[in-house]
Design a protein that fits this description.
29% strand, six-stranded mixed beta sheet, alpha+beta, elongated, 34% helix
């Protein structure tokens, strides 16, 4: 029975027999497509990112236990207190992390509701309240997960695994106002007038690629966050929560590609 449990668990984690450790450039096309997808920054996905970025030692069994608590709750609850079975599950997880961390994505998408101010016809731009402005900012707190929801029945801080991250960007971004042409601005303002309960809301979408882990630190709300060096790939602002009505976009990957060619 024990051997069967470990075999099933290894299959769940690995899908196939263990392969040699892979760097990102050695991945298959299917693996690369998964790697290049932008993921929601759930705690499960952040836990994988922390291992991808080398936050933990592969010999850190407490970190492995907490990883399983976050990503494999049912197995954790069933076997954690069975010492012999758990030792084997740890080893299977250790092998999985050692072999497959390169397949974990470092790309994330964050959605933030923002307020926008009045429209200036002359400059063809909406004002942005101070809290929503980007004035040569390089550090951004990106909260997605709350700090009170239980994780595998546990409500406290999980050692080594902050529930959210903050990013230090490789270059500052500036967006002191929101440029929108007059026609689109009129359409947006008419929409707000027809739906006054919505207010002047917009939705900021940030796509980032994490580069390196720096440290755990206190975020703007006082809760622990992982501070990660990152690059901003795309900044988009939508008029609607479904993100179908685009007001503004900056594609930094295209800018970087053009700069490489010049």
């Amino acid at each position: 029975f024990l051997t069967l449990v470990v075999m099933l668990f290894a299959a769940l984690l690995l899908g196939t027999a263990p392969a040699p450790a892979q760097e990102e450039e050695n991945l298959t096309e299917a693996e690369r497509q998964l790697l290049n997808h932008y993921y929601a920054p759930t705690l499960e996905n952040l836990a994988r990112l922390y291992w991808k970025l080398g936050k933990f030692s592969i010999k850190d069994y407490k970190a492995i236990d907490h990883y399983l608590m976050i990503t494999e709750c049912e197995i954790y609850q069933r076997y954690y207190n069975s010492d012999v079975e758990w030792a084997r599950i740890r080893e299977a997880t250790k092998e999985h992390l050692n072999n497959d961390a390169a397949k974990f994505s470092r790309r994330f998408i964050f959605i933030v509701e923002i307020d926008i101010g009045r429209y200036d016809v002359k400059s063809e731009a909406f004002e942005l309240p101070h809290a929503n402005k980007f004035n040569a900012r390089t550090k951004i707190d990106l909260s997605y997960n709350d700090s009170v929801t239980a994780v595998c029945g546990y409500r406290g801080r999980i050692e080594g695994y902050p529930r959210n991250m903050a990013v230090i960007l490789d270059s500052p971004i500036s967006l002191p106002y929101l440029p929108v042409d007059k026609q689109m601005a009129s359409e947006y303002l008419n929409h707000v007038k027809e739906h006054p309960h919505i207010g002047r809301k917009a939705y900021l979408e940030l796509k980032i690629t994490a580069q390196a882990y720096k440290e755990d630190t206190a975020g703007t709300d006082g809760h622990l966050v992982a501070l990660v060096f990152s690059q901003l790939d795309k900044l988009t602002i939508y008029a609607d929560g479904a993100r179908r009505w685009k007001l503004y976009e900056q594609d930094f990957t295209e800018i970087r590609d053009r700069n490489k060619k010049n």
